[in-house]
Amino acid sequence: MPHPIELGLDTFGDVTASADGSLVSHAQAIRDVVDQAVLADQLGLDFFGLGEHHRIEFAVSAPEVVLAAIAARTENIRLGSAVTVLSSDDPVRVYQRFASLDALSNGRAEVVLGRGSFTESFPLFGYNLSDYEILFEEKIELFAKLLKDSPVTWSGTTRSSLTNQWIYPRPESGTMTTWVGVGGSPQSVVRAAHYGLPLMLAIIGGEPARFEPYTDLYRRTLSALGKPEQPIAIHSSGFVAETDEEALEIVYPHHMAFMEKAGRERGWPPFSRAQYLQGAGPNGALYIGSPETIARKIVRNLRLLGASRFDMRYSMGLLGHAHLMNSIELYGTQVAPRVRELMQDATP
């Protein structure tokens, strides 16, 4: 592996259930996220990310604000988005917010740019879904220019033009780690390579093996464009408990409830327990099980895709804060060291 192995966590700030079954407030969910990030830092994990959503079941709609609070209470863990919905935001403001986070965290900020799996932000901020493609295409072009330590000149159709314009604050290092989040589109993979940005694969369903052609395409495109090799990361949902059986049973009702709600919104057929178990199986996209099971699955897919980083979305449905803290503890103390141990072994 040309890049060191890294293990991270991310969350959407899911509204969780308290001990009596009632839902916690959005405010409490955000405070819980900060505590979860502090634990991740204490355990020596590499990255903590927050997704941006504008739905009732998720509390985090302004990741940078929450990440700034986390920065003040942590020391080493890198902090970023998972993802920033660039299409419905302004690239200059995104850059400024993350550059400010970079300053507050002493250079630990990262941003993952994407289009998101939900579309609520488009009407909320006055954008038309018919402009879905052009919005992201133009805005990532501008963001790539902002990353260079030089004045920016840019023009397009989705915002006002810039002419020889400096954007402040500037990161102390001169630039900022920026990933492109991709859900499985060849065009998105080629776009990430075109800008020479690291690739974050959002594998939220199906088999991870189906992404192998995309990582191959990414590397070939980088090479063809004469750009240096970049790291590849995997993002997937998961939950760790002492045993496989315990993990599967804890998550099952919460995952099913979420899938049923999403299915009603998107016209999917009913989701079955068999599909859940298949997704959590060796070839599925869910990382639900014991530390050993999860570690081996992470290693298998890192090797399969030539990736060097795995970020687990540890919050699934209404799972309570205590369950999430326990899962983070197991991930940091048992999964992460086991992954690094297995990656040193040349055998599959």
Automatic annotation (TrEMBL):
Residues 21-307 form the Luciferase-like domain. GO terms for cellular component: cytosol. It comes from the Bacteria. Keywords: Monooxygenase, Oxidoreductase. One of its GO terms (molecular function) is monooxygenase activity. SUPFAM superfamilies: Bacterial luciferase-like. InterPro entries: Bact_Lucif_Oxidored, LLM_Atu2307-like, Luciferase-like_dom, Luciferase-like_sf. Pfam families: Bac_luciferase. The keyword Oxidoreductase applies. NCBIfam families: LLM_2I7G (TIGR03858). PANTHER family: BLR5498 PROTEIN, LUCIFERASE-LIKE MONOOXYGENASE. This is Luciferase. It comes from Pseudarthrobacter enclensis.
